[in-house]
Amino acid sequence: MSLQLFISVLFGTLFLLLLIFRVVEPAYVLLFNKPLYIHWYPFSKKLKLSQRQILVNDFPFYNGLSPKRKMYFEHRVNEFIATYQFVGKEIVITEQMQMLIAGTYVMLTFGMRNYLIHLFNKIIIYPSSYYSTVNQTYHKGEFNPKMKAIVFSWEDFLLGHSTSNDNINLGLHEFSHVLHFHCLKSNDPSAIIFFDEFKEVIKYYIDPNLNNVLKQKGYFRLYAYGNQFEFLSVILEHFFETPHVFKATHPELYAHIVAMINFNEEYFK
How many angstroms separate the first and last alpha carbons of the chain? Predict the structure, then answer.
């Protein structure tokens, strides 16, 4: 192939990609309310055997995926661990900590193409509840935008992960806060869809009639009604922990969450 022909093919390919992202995908999002594609990894990264075994032993969501989707999940977990710094405070960071935290985040964002968020760059882990200088009280976890940090009490993170039917999951809760902030600021297709569906979800918080229906049925714990951010985080905890109850109790709200994070219900066995 001559240099001139190579340059022509290269520019033609770049133009086609630009057309897809500027014209085709926005139209696709408008029609189908989902990104044109989610997973595409030319150089997919694999986990070590010990890392994969942690997912097999401790992550039912991973075990329910098809072999191809397990490959996608592993690649994203690998990228998460490589991207974000894990910092132990009076505790040694272990492979299990990295895998369970990364797996929780990847599960939450599995239907979104741009999953690595730059609002945080480190994950700080304490052995148990810790004293926060932000509001002078003890915390189990928090998202600190100024420090660009997610902070967890490992004791409480592990309890939330291992207890799968109480609708309390510290990892999902704090990562939901990050995802919420990100989608308020970003304009990528997944963020746009998230924000549009969030406007429908939040009606259940601000509309007195819809809000009363939620409270009367008593499915969501009272902490959800503190503010809009906690409302969304609590709802996402319920979505992943007891999805079948959620769908039966509040089917319309459930459908908005499915669309909001572009979630494939086949993952819920």
Answer: 51
